[in-house]
Amino acid sequence: MIYIESGSLNPYYNLALEEYILRNFDIKEDIVFLWRNTPTIVVGNNQNTIEEINMPFVNEKQIKVVRRLSGGGAVYQDPGNLNFTFLVSLEKPENTDIKKFAQPVAAALNKLGAPAELTGRNDITIEDKKISGNAQRLFQNKLLHHGTLLFDVNLEDMVNSLQVGFDKIQSKGIKSVRSRVTNIKPYLKKEMDITGFRDAVLKELFQGNEVKQHFLSAHDKEMVNKLVEEKYSTWDWNFGFSPPYTIKDSRRFPAGKVEFFLDIEKGKIKNCQIYGDFLALRDVIEIEKALQGKPYRENDIREALSKFDLSYYFGDISLEEIMTVFLDS
């Protein structure tokens, strides 16, 4: 087995590095890759991003959002979380067994004092509390298996960033299963920081043998950065790739009630319907048409609405008030 180190806390780079290795390396030896991210929500490949995140909190805290290759649910990560990735050749069918990869990680945690065990289809838990989720992705004859390790994560930010009003959004995306979670750090035999924890886990995975490290070439890094620019940092991949969904919301202001229904496809507004008892002088169908085809994100909606004198359409309801209806969902 060989070890590859990212050296980056950028989630776009780290997920691009995973894909680059999976698609371009001739995997003759198993590869392990340990990495961390700045505060980030990582959504599953088949999920509707907007359904999984608390957008106002994410914006306020400047939490990054990125889509990964594998399926499963959305997870919050910060520098107190350690991610692990295994990349292997699929010469043997049993290589797809999640337990094959999760069990050595659980065993490493036990040696460090944390009573970790495998539960459910893809989790590692301590005292019935989740500390790790695992997922996989196939490419040709190669398998990517990755998972999280909640070492010392800000659990309050985790809960708040993934909190969203599910009744407002109807989607074909796969909703994340909310589980009771805990951090690993309090269970360890001795005090250590996240760097010491990473080194200890790596040592256990190599079973005390020398850690053989592979260093990325300048070309490798260039190609990973290109993948960041063209895919992982883009709105189209992280939001636009979401499955079709419908959003509805309403709010009452002193000048009347505003209610809207939006059909979103590929992250853009396909259909828009606006209702309410506001005093309109002009037909809101003009507003509805102006929003069709726009990306469902704040700047694009605000720009489209700003081209109108909204007093003709919504009476005394201001642009800022109308924006709260669109973005509250």
> How many domains would you count in the coordinates?
2
Helix content: 25-40%
How much of the sequence lies in strands comes to: 25-35%
Distance between the first and last residues' Cα: 46 Å
**Helix vs. strand class:** alpha+beta
Read across the widest sheet, the strand sequence of neighbours is: 7-8-9-10-6-2-1-12
What is the molecular shape?
A: elongated
How many β-strand runs?
15
CATH architecture name of the largest domain? 2-Layer Sandwich
CATH topology of the largest domain, by name, is BirA Bifunctional Protein, domain 2
**CATH-level-4 superfamily name of the largest domain:** Bira Bifunctional Protein, Domain 2
State the helix count: 12
Instruction: Output the helix-strand order.
Output: EHEEHHEEEHEEEEHEHEHHEEEHHHH
| Rg of Cα set | 23 Å
Largest sheet: 8 strands, mixed
Return residue spans where pLDDT drops below 50 for at least 5 consecutive residues.
none
Broad CATH class of the largest domain: Alpha Beta
Calculate the mean pLDDT score and round it.
89
